[in-house]
Amino acid sequence: xxxxxxxxxxxxxxGQDGAYLAEFLLEKGYIVHxxxxxxxxxxxxxxDHLYRDQHEKSLRFFLHHGDMTDSSSLTRIxxxxxxxxxxxxxxxxxxxxxxxxxxxxANSDALGALRILEALRILGMEKKTRYYQASTSELYGLxxxxxxxxxxxxxxxxxxxxxKLYAYWITVNYREAYGMYACNGILFNHESPIRGETFVxxxxxxxxxxxxxxxxxxxxxxxLDAKRDWGHARDYVEMQWLMLQQEQPEDFVIxxxxxxxxxxxxxxxxxxxxMNISWSGQGVMEKGYDENGKLIVExxxxxxxxxxxxxxxxxxxxxxxxxxxxxxxxxQELVSEMVIEDLKAAERDELVKAHxxxxxxxxx
Length: 364
Ligand code: NDP
Ligand code: GDR
Fold this sequence. Notes:
- The protein is α/β, with parallel strands linked by helices.
- The chain is built from ten helices and 15 strands.
- The chain has helices at residues 16-27, 71-81, 95-100, 102-122, 159-178, 200-212, 233-243, 262-272, 317-322, 331-354, and strands at residues 7-11, 31-36, 61-65, 85-88, 130-136, 182-187, 190-191, 219-221, 227-228, 231-232, 252-254, 260-261, 278-280, 287-289, 295-299.
- Strand 1, helix 1 and strand 2 form a beta-alpha-beta unit.
- Helix 2 packs parallel to helix 4 (102-122) and helix 6 (200-212) runs parallel beside helix 8 (262-272).
- The protein is globular and about 65 Å long.
- Bound molecules: NADPH dihydro-nicotinamide-adenine-dinucleotide phosphate and guanosine-5'-diphosphate-rhamnose.
C-alpha cells in the first residue's frame, strides 16, 4: 500500500451496486471502506469474496458498522477514514416497500444524504472529498417527456422517489452553496445475478429456473405492462466512478436507451430456459402457460402499487459524450447471465431436496 492509493468510502457496500463498485475500485488500486449496518443475520454475502483476514498486512478493504439514520456513526466513519471519494449508495431501495415504510425511507434515503454532506462540512472536508449521490430514474415518475434526460422535469410517484428527490436537490444545493464536488448519477434500472430477489427481474429469473426444475409451481407478478430501461449493474458502477473523475461536478443520466415490458422480460427469461409462454386474458386475469398448458405465471394484485411508474426510457447522450461511457452488456446478455446463475442455484436446491432435505423459502 502506498500514499498514492486513493481512499473511497461506500455506503450500501453490501448491496448489489456496492459489491460491484467495491470490486471495481479495488481493481483500480483504491483503499475501500464500506459501511454495513448491524443485522441479526449476516448481510455480507455479496462482498465476502473481497474480505480478507483483518490481521493480514496490506489490506485494502475495510468494513465499518454504521447506519444512514445515525449521524454520529456516519460522521465518525468519515473522520476516521478521510475519504477522497464518497459513494452514497445506501438506501431503502424498494419502491413498493416505501409505501409501507414511508417515514423510514425518507429518513435513510433523504436525510441520510444530508447527514453525509453535513458531516463533510462539519469536519472541514467539503473541499477534500468528492461526493456521488445514487439518484434514480424514479424521479421522472409520471413521465413528462420520452426519452428522459438530465433536463426532463421530475414527477415522483412513491415515497421512495420523493425521498430521492430531496437527496438529489440537497446534493445540487451543497455543490452550489459550498462549492463541493458533489454530483448525481440518475441511473435507470440496472440488474445482475446479485440483484435483490424481490426486484422484478431477479424474481422472474429465479422463479422460472425453479419452475423449470419442478421446485416451484407458479410465478405471481403485478403490473406486466410496466416498461423499464434495464442495464447491467457492472456497467453502471464504472460510470459512478467516472463521474467523480471530471474537472467539474455534473449530473448524468445513465441508461441503455432500450425499453422492454415486464412481460417481455418474462418471455426472454423463459426462452433462455428453453420454455415458451403463451399468454391469455388481460389485466388481473392475464395468465401465462407453458408448452404443456400448465399455468406458470399469474397476476396477483397484491403486487400493484398505489401509484405506478408505467414507462421509463433513458437518453444517456450526455454521459456518452462527456464521459465517453458506453454500456457493454445487451438486454439479452443480461437476461442470459441472470438465468444461468439462477438455474445453477436451483440445481443446488434440487440436489438438496433429492437428498431428503426440505428446502423452504418464502417467495415474495
Ligand atoms: P440494494 O437494495 O441492493 O442495496 C442497498 C444498500 O443499502 C444495502 O447495502 C443495504 O444494506 C444498505 N442500506 C439500506 N438501508 C440502510 C441504512 N439505513 N443504513 C445503512 N445502509 C443501509 O440497492 P442497489 O445496490 O440496487 O442500489 C444502490 C443505490 O442506487 C440505492 O440508493 C438505490 O436506491 C439506487 N438506485 C438503484 C438502481 C437500480 O436499478 N439498482 C437504479 C437507480 C438508483 P443491507 O444489505 O443490510 O440491506
Ligand atoms: P423499480 O423496480 O420499481 O423500477 O425500482 P422493480 O423491479 O421493483 O419493479 C419494476 C416494475 O415491475 C413491476 N412489477 C413488479 N415489481 C416487483 N418488484 N415485483 C413484482 O412482482 C412485480 N410485478 C410487476 C413494478 O410495478 C414496476 O413497474 C428499481 C429499484 O432498484 C429502485 O431502487 C431504483 O431507483 C429504480 O429501479 C430505478
